[in-house]
Amino acid sequence: MQVISALFVEEFNMRQVDGPSTRLDLTGVMFSLRAPAPPPVTIEPHLLALIHCPPNESGSGVFEVIVTSDSDPESQAEQIARNVSPFEVEPGKFTYRLVRAEITFDDLGTVYAHCRIDRGRWTTVPLSLLAPA
């Protein structure tokens, strides 16, 4: 299985269309956001990962997300947040994982959400906290 895409989003909806087929509506895709107050602050963004299972695989997996201050998931940087969850998907189909992380920023800057399935290849998504308005 593989992560097709991973993004921070404000809202996510699914709808059926003719086919039968499914459409994903993403709102507020972001790579940065303004801090709600001067740091330290805690934010709770939603990370959406789209996952595909080839027809010849089992459809069972474990989705792991770690959030660190380093863009290298193999670094020794302290984990800011972590989520591990098993999932099932029909072989040949897609599924999604929606993870709401609680991330504390001691200062303005960037964190990196590193996602993978079953200890596979990492997909990394940055999220920068900007100065409050």
Structure commentary:
This protein is an all-beta fold. The chain has a single domain, classed as Immunoglobulin-like, CATH 2.60.40.2550. It has no helices and twelve strands. It has strands at residues 2-9, 11-17, 21-27, 32-34, 41-43, 46-52, 60-68, 79-88, 94-100, 103-105, 109-117, 123-130. The protein has a five-stranded mixed sheet, with no helix packed on it. A three-stranded antiparallel sheet has the order 1-6-9, with no helix packed on it. It is flat. The model has no long low-confidence stretch (mean pLDDT 95).
Q: Tell me the series of helices and strands, N- to C-terminal.
A: EEEEEEEEEEEE
Number of helical elements: 0
Main sheet: strand order: 4-12-11-7-8
Uncertain stretches of 5 or more adjacent residues: none
The oligomeric state of the chains shown is single chain
Measured by DSSP, the beta-strand proportion falls in over 45%
CATH topology: Immunoglobulin-like
| Count of structural domains | 1
Mean pLDDT: 95
Termini Cα gap? 41 Å
- Tell me the structural class: mainly beta
Question: What CATH architecture label applies?
Answer: Sandwich
In CATH's first tier, which class applies?
Mainly Beta
Shape: flat
Number of DSSP strands?
A: 12
Backbone CA Rg? 16 Å
- Helix content percent band: under 10%
